[in-house]
Amino acid sequence: MEINRMQWYVITAVGGQEESIAQALREKMNNFGYANFVKTSENDASAPLANGEQPKVKEIRVFMKRQESEQIFNKNSAELPKTLKNTKTTRWETLPDGRYKRTKSKKVNRFGNYIFVQCDLDDDIWYNIRNTVGVMGFVGSTGKAAKPIPCSMDEYERLINDAAAAEYAARIAAGETAIKAEAAKVEVKPQPKPVLTEAPFKVGQTLELINGSFAGTNCTVTSINLEKQTAKVEVEFFGRVNSLEVAFGDLKLAK
What we know:
Elements: E1 7-13, H1 18-31, E2 57-61, E3 64-73, E4 90-94, E5 100-109, E6 114-119, H2 123-130, E7 135-138, H3 153-184, E8 206-209, E9 218-225, E10 230-237, E11 240-247, E12 251-253
């Protein structure tokens, strides 16, 4: 029986630079003859090498998502730009009280500080990845020259399916909002959230995430924001504790 040596590994990298680090890794793997990334900005390098052999590094991935931030400006604010221009990443709205709202969007790593690599991890590839600027190490390695434990295919497939579904839903929602606003020729106004006087969960409580990339995973509440109707939770991911801010509606009591 032939053993599949292509396994998924998780790299920890400098936050905010994961995509540029991933691209540097693709170029490096090409230069050393371990991969055949036709375009270094693309993930898949499954094409045979120039000598006809199969690549030892097949994919290097960063899961990106679109993140939005909002800022409200008063009419006479010194910070208000002279020109309120909508672009691909910036959207302006006039609020009922005459103020202006700016919504900016940007792409960020869905799994902050993590890069996913599918490869046949021999000593040379392991060394070259670890000694790339911006790479801090491998998840699942105990150090002391111990190679990391690969991610299971079940776990990886769940992550990629959840990430793709979330991205698709976000695009559909954004598209539907824009179409409806254009058709009605009215301003899109945010729907007010119902005022809560008491949070549905308590600090220290164990809950289950029901949406997003960590759906089905248990987490612990560390703080609650009644005004925003969100909770900060800690969830373990590949042996590392991550802090997330989650809407109340994306949580339920753990079984």
